[in-house]
Amino acid sequence: MRIGQLVIDTTPLRESRDYRWLFTGRCALLLGSALTETAATWQVYDITRSSLAVGLNLVIGSVGMVAGLLAGGMLADRMDRRKVLMFVRLPSILLAVILVLNSLSDEPILWVIFAATALIELMAGLGAPASYAAVPSLVGSERLAAAGALNGVTTQLCYMVGPALAGLLIAGPGIAVCYAANALGFMAFAGAMVFVRPLPPTGQTGEKRGMASLGEGFTFVGKNRVLAGVLLIDANAMLFAMPKGLFPALALENIGGGATTFGLLAAAPGFGAIIGAATSGWTSRVTRPGMVVIGASMVWGAAIVGFGLTTSLPLALFFLALAGAGDLISEVLRSALLQHYTPDRLRGRVTSLWLAQANFTPALGNARAGAVAQVFSVTGSVVSGGLISLVGALLLGALNPKLRKASLAPSTGADAHNTKPETDDTMGPMVLKKETDG
Hints:
It contains 17 helices and 2 strands.
């Protein structure tokens, strides 16, 4: 199927029975997670009427996710990945049931939501590295790009449909239905893993283990200006212009809607990301992907400013969709640059750091936005954050010529046949150790 310039290759689904089961379970898991994240955001705000409390819940969940990611990489390298994927989701079923029971009580308990969110995200983090590591053995190296595209499109679809559906469910049968759907999603994923063949790790973790191995990844990223720039420019956007935690207040106070309006706001960035993905074929031909990353990050900041200034629902949805499209283009090229400039023996650890950053900085950004809204106003928090993000992307690009000149040409950086990355003359040589993907 061709959408614009993007060709969606379904070959992995046709050729690999095991991948079909993993893909199907993952879709159920993602939809349930999107429903629960949206429901928890609304419920925390409904209990506290505080955007700061919403942000804190997201931070707590993100801390659990990051802790799980750091430990999950070691599990994925030392245990059967199928078993890891299956068993880390079983406790999540019980946690989702606890959220259902708490939401049905006359006075839902706030700390129960916080604790359950943190533990669910911890389980998700423990399983994520195993999920990434399992795909190559299921589809083969020649189908990795196709599998990545399928996963990316379904993620965006679930996080577009999920929040909108959650808004309707909250306004109709209630929040408990969202949490119950998440429990079913966990059950569906664990059940799908029963039909996947065993997936034992095929290599060793390398010379270093534990924190020493992780520290090697930090050192490599810190010395490579392109990779450091990729992570910093994303952290800037998410830290200063992530208004998801303010959506309930914006839906009620600025736009004058309710739960359905909140669901639409939460879904709009995902819709924009789908449009961005459908027209992203041109990104494979850009000669200066770093410049596009900088520009797309500036589009994100500018769109958030526009979103904060409007009280019209159609305009708010437009600006959020524009922000989502900009973020998708940025993510496509940031991911490509990260893989291109990282040698294979370090790719697992660097990817883990990227995932940790991608999960933690948005939560910090939501907490920051909530705190600013408490002191000033919701509108002031969104607009000021968008402006800082816009200026920050411009400055990070101006101060990092390596990122501006970054290329995906085979002669630049590290590829599969050359594990010695480009040396940053201003930072000194880089000494790397052996590593296998985590």
